[in-house]
Amino acid sequence: MLLGLIPCGFSQTRYDLLLQGGRVIDPKNKISAVRDLAILNGRIAAVAEHLDPAAAVKTVNVSGLYVTPGLVDIHVHVFAGTGERGSYAGDNSVYPDGFTFRVGVTTVADAGCAGWRNFEDFKTRVIDRSQTRVLAFLNIVGAGMRGPKYENNLEDMEAAPSAEMALRHKDVIVGIKTAHYAGPGWGAVERAVEAGARARIPVMVDFGEVRPERPSSDLWTKKLRPGDIYTHCYSGLRNELDDSGRVNPAMIEGRKRGVIFDVGHGGGSFAWRVAVPAIREGFLPDSISTDLHIGSMNAGMKDMLNVMSKFLAMGLSLDDVILRSTWNPAREIHREELGNLSVGAPGDVSVLRLENGKFGYTDMYGARLQGNQKLVCELTIRDGKVVYDLNGITRPDWDTLPKNYTQTGDPRWDAISPARRTTPRPPAQ
């Protein structure tokens, strides 16, 4: 269903779409209550206890469901289509649209698949062709995330051209990424931070190997700036817990300095034996993200809602989980127009169902944690357009339509499109 401009024949209506009776969770605006939400011309038009359905072209009953900002996943790998084997600038990545809308995600940030040498190819192949809003962390490696041959090459980690590319595409590039570096010293991190400083954007670090001369404690307490992002914070691979099994004091100090801690679940970066004690100790993630790629999507990670459900199973409230999947990540990447339902914000909305039952969630090693709640996406709206509708809640029953029904142009059935409306029709009830 396509939602667009309301023509003059519908002058009595004020909204394209009205979601009625859902529990709105909008952390930015401190709303967690039953509210109606309306969209007009692709943007949030109103959020209130009651909005008149007669003012909307289409009204959808979402009572019993949760209405949230479109989910923002800041760690994915979506530079697909190059045909390069074993590469995140190739076959290890996935096209975003097949994995986003069905789980309520409307915005993703690719985590360093492309560097300055191949970013424009990535933009042409994927970013410009996707319905999903695709942003990007630019890899400090000029050639991008293409395996050890490239990712361990310090000579191709240049701050100046990386920053130049980020500034050239500042509408899309939201940060610098360093990942997987296995060589000696701090060169990879320092050059990424230099590029981030030049472009005035944050750095995301997947630290690679911990070595004696570059302990992870120094990363959190000395090398990263306030606002920089440490991803894979529950991996257990980089001393996230100390020898006593408690959160590494350096991570706590890093958080006090303003370093951001992101989940980045992935196929090999999330363990219950790290996450559960850290959560019990009160070390919650600043943002929940998937690290989506071909090695994680069918393993313990699966998708954004599965990762969010894991944090429900560890005792976080739904409001806490939504905060860390919408407004927090939007702020981390300096895109504060996203991740909220303020009037005038882009019309990105997720409608979620919270199911109760017996569910099992596995970590990177295949260990299971049982939970009794699971999030499911019923409806996803991107820029005011319905892009996913699990159970057809925006559509009429077939036997209420005229015999031999087709795409009629009726806004209650087909699309809200001025080009297809020749006569005014009454608003949906």
Please describe what this structure looks like.
By secondary structure, the chain is an alpha/beta fold. It folds into 2 domains: 8-64 and 396-420, Roll (Urease, subunit C, domain 1), CATH 2.30.40; 71-343 and 357-372, Alpha-Beta Barrel (TIM Barrel). 19% of the residues lie in helices and 26% in strands. The protein has 10 helices and 15 strands. It has helices at 119-125, 148-151, 159-168, 187-199, 216-223, 249-257, 272-280, 304-313, 318-323, 327-332, and strands spanning 15-26, 31-40, 43-48, 56-61, 66-69, 71-76, 105-115, 133-139, 173-179, 203-206, 229-230, 260-261, 349-362, 368-382, 385-389. Strands 1, 2, 3, 4, 5, 13, 14 and 15 form an 8-stranded mixed β-sheet that branches. A 7-stranded parallel β-sheet has the order 6-7-8-9-10-11-12. The longest helix is centred in the middle third of the chain and has 13 residues, at 187-199. The radius of gyration is 22 Å and the shape is globular. Residues 1-11 and 415-429 have low confidence and may be disordered.
Question: Briefly, what is this?
Answer:
It contains ten helices and 15 strands.
| Major β-sheet profile | 8 strands, mixed
Average pLDDT metric: 92
Could you give the distance between the termini?
17 Å
- Helical stretch tally: 10
Rg calculated over all Cα atoms:
22 Å
CATH-defined topology of the largest domain: TIM Barrel
User: How many strand elements?
Assistant: 15
Q: What is the general shape?
A: globular
Tally of distinct domains: 2
Bin the strand percentage: 25-35%
- What is the chain-wise order of helices and strands? EEEEEEEHEHHEHEHEHEHHHHEEE
CATH superfamily of the largest domain: Metal-dependent hydrolases
Q: Structural class, judged by helices and strands?
A: alpha/beta
